[in-house]
């Protein structure tokens, strides 16, 4: 099933689809911010296989409810796109289904109108490799498509090939398509729950290992850093969202300490919450991590903004309290000493490295080992006979190094996350009091 907007079925050497980008400067937005966002949208468009031939910005106090930018501006945009030979107009902001419908009506059949979410979904579809990623992408596609389903989606037959065939034009057929989509969405949600259950079983098997998740802005060098630390051969490409799949590898810090390191999908500004929700099972590795490595591209002027985006996504996932280390990557790309000094001021606790040149990785490993020693401890659990049912949970969640008995109490020497040990001891004490 595919809902791609950029045509990549043709010969790869054929001309790329030409696109014009549209950004809006609101009253509380600076010109520089709009330019940065459009620059990022350009990279997204190129990642999706398009060629940007023009950019349009407009200053507004609020979105036009009908066409987002106003009917006059929409007409002007149509003629600009036609003059530049564009077949695609991409808005940097999310459009409501009715706004997109009205803009598409103005643009006509020869020019497609999409928004940032539609473009990102397109890229996700291109980069999905595993069963889980493909399932999540299809779910996001259908949830995006459903409210936009109208007669104007004349290319629906091609898009819906994986779901069902169309019996004829008109509103009656649209209702059939909506029913097919809703049915498919439910099936995909059920499948993702099944995948999540499988992941939970795998997670329990390795719960007694200390786990670290790499999180960061897309293209910050997370996969390169993982390769540098673990000698893994994780796919690396200089593109946004080069990979959507979580990869986990073993990292040996010293002769007594090994941990699990997971690389996850990159974050990005204006990443809609419904897309994050679609990829919640992929991000389960982040939720289960004992430590997060927040990877920042140190060479970009937007380093602090990227850091803010990472924290916003983590907040949405309710993971802001997870211990973390800020990793400022791409030291090799910093040519200005004053920029390095400013970074050190902005991120006083940050570890500056170059993953591609393997510079200062020892400092990062030392910081990880320190966090490991702080968060992963050896302690004793005293389990009264009333809490004997907890033993299965303890053996699944922690490494049990020794076991002894004292009257009606089982004494376990365990190693694992400090918070889990404390939680289990509190449950054991509570059962004794009740």
Can you give a write-up of this model?
This protein has 434 residues and is an alpha/beta fold. It is built from 15 helices and 13 strands.
Draw up the topology in text:
Blueprint: E1 17-25, H1 31-47, E2 50-59, H2 71-83, E3 88-91, H3 97-107, E4 112-115, H4 116-127, H5 131-145, H6 156-159, H7 171-205, E5 211-216, H8 222-230, E6 247-254, E7 257-263, H9 273-278, H10 284-287, E8 291-297, H11 303-316, E9 324-329, H12 337-346, E10 351-352, H13 361-375, E11 376-384, H14 390-397, E12 399-406, E13 409-417, H15 418-433
Parallel strand pairs: 1-2, 1-3, 3-4, 5-7, 5-8, 8-9, 9-10
Antiparallel strand pairs: 6-7, 11-13, 12-13
Helix pairs in contact: 1-4, 4-5, 5-7
Number of domains in the coordinates?
4
Adjacency order of strands in the biggest sheet:
6-7-5-8-9-10
CATH class descriptor of the largest domain: Alpha Beta
CATH topology of the largest domain: Rossmann fold
Overall pLDDT metric? 82
Termini separation (Å)?
55 Å
In helices, the fraction of residues equals 40-55%
What is the CATH superfamily label of the largest domain? P-loop containing nucleotide triphosphate hydrolases
The stretches of 5 or more residues where confidence is low (pLDDT under 50) are 1-5, 7-11, 151-171
